[in-house]
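In the previous lecture we treated proteins in isolation. Real proteins rarely work alone, and many bind small molecules. This record shows how such a complex is specified: first the sequence, then the SMILES for flavin mononucleotide.
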Amino acid sequence: MTTYPADVPTQLPTTFATNQDLDPAQLRQAFGIFPSGVVAVAAEVAGSYVGLAASSFTSVSLDPPLVSFSVANTSKTWPDLRRASHLGVTVLADHHGSVARQLAGRVDQRFDGLDLTVTSEGAVTLDEGLATFDTTIYRELEAGDHTIVLLRLHAVQHVDHSLPLVFHRSKFGLQRPS
Ligand SMILES: Cc1cc2nc3c(=O)[nH]c(=O)nc-3n(C[C@H](O)[C@H](O)[C@H](O)COP(=O)(O)O)c2cc1C
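The predicted 3D structure, ligand included, written as tokens:
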């Protein structure tokens, strides 16, 4: 049982309301209260750069070293990206808001003007990222309207020279409730 110090007022309901309407718009709002970072997942496939921005990235395991992100089953990019032998993951910095939007926008412009590093195995990372990972797909798990992609890490670099890009309440940066 969770106990709270007597001087900390809690406003937790004793029960959850029943028959809640868990509609997607409400869920998106509730999920958005939890802040996340943003990564670029990218690779060179058949001579073209393919990739997307993802805020669903999370660390998973140290041994074996695994991270994950979730990709919508409607993604037009994932069927191509998953064919790559290696995938690059880049943790975006706080000045990368427009880069994140670009990486989620028009497919033919996603990598315009970006300084990239491409490994011999096709993993693509952004040079200005705070951390970069060279990965391969370890497992894909069906998860409702998304697929959870577990990635195994093969190489890691991090520079940590600035704050990370934060995605919160559907915007960049921490958002105070109005
Ligand atoms: C900040 C941000 C975070 C995003 N996070 C995800 C994510 O975690 N998973 C996902 O499938 N799409 C995410 N997207 C959307 C994708 O970047 C992309 O726009 C979407 O997959 C549609 O493009 P596609 O059809 O080429 O895949 C995010 C977009 C933005 C701007």
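Summary for your notes: The mean pLDDT is 93. The pocket of flavin mononucleotide is lined by residues 38, 52-56, 69-72, 75-78, 100-101, 103-104, 107, 167 (CB under 6 Å).
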